[in-house]
Amino acid sequence: MSFKSPADIANSACATATGKCSLRISQMLFLGFLAGAYIGFGGFLYTVVTQDLSQYVGLGLSKLVGGASFTVGLMLVIIAGGELFTGNCLIPIGALAGCVTLKEILKNWVIVYFANLIGSLFLAYLIYRTGLASDAVGSNALKIASGKMSLPFEIAFFSGILCNWLVVLAVWMAMAAEDIISKIFAIFFPIMAFVASGFEHSIANMYFMALGILLKNNEGLVSQAGLSSHSLDALSVGGFLNNIIPVTLGNIIGGVVFVALFYYLAYKDKIKA
């Protein structure tokens, strides 16, 4: 076959876990920063594409096209190289197989998550400074951010589970691919599905919500977005945490349980630690 079988992917995932946990702290920081920015690029493209598309093609197709545009973020992470916290929710398969320790995984997660945050915030600031997030694009960015920051804990949590189930499946499938084009297609469909479905991704949300906070003092954009005072109040550090905590917890469960754990249990007899 020109691609790896699921059992072979399980072995590759263990080898990948070993490699990721062996990275120097400086490597985790640099690659994590890049991954946070790459996901932000996908987020900005999504915002531009969906700013007015629904009035021409309908809401459903607008979400589909927006989801397709967002896939560029994970393509950049996997093909160009980056350390993404949500994707790294696959590496516990290495601990289950005895390739790495839980301590090594937690070290990777904490450093990469912090680096993803910095990269996301930095890109949001750059986008803000370009002035490109103005008019319809800026009002769309405000609506996206306020919607995320107003989500109840339970909805954000379960949306986070569903999101990272698909994101880590995209990483899993990309490991099966033996060439660039195959990797692109392996990434494209699961990521398009999670975005079009409206699920919640912690690293993408860091970018979306940071840009929303930066834009909230633009009265013209606020008026154009039609935000209520309650929605505007949600655009704050408190609103950021209100979303990012449950979404992060959900992302961990979605990736670790439904991909890493389940595939380990399915193929543990074929994994060579």
From TrEMBL:
InterPro entries xrefs: Aquaporin-like, For/NO2_transpt, For/NO2_transpt_CS
Transmembrane segment boundaries: 28-49, 69-97, 109-128, 155-177, 184-208, 244-266
Keyword rRNA-binding: no
Pfam family membership, one: Form_Nir_trans
GO molecular function, one term: formate transmembrane transporter activity
Membrane topology summary: Multi-pass membrane protein
Entry superkingdom: Bacteria
Entry's Gene Ontology cellular component terms: plasma membrane
PROSITE patterns linked to this entry: FORMATE_NITRITE_TP_1
Keywords attached to this entry: Membrane, Transmembrane, Transmembrane helix, Transport
Entry-linked PANTHER family: FORMATE TRANSPORTER-RELATED, FORMATE_NITRATE FAMILY TRANSPORTER (EUROFUNG)
Family: Belongs to the FNT transporter (TC 1.A.16) family.
The protein's name: Putative formate transporter FocA
Location, primary (coarse class): membrane
Cellular compartments annotated: Membrane
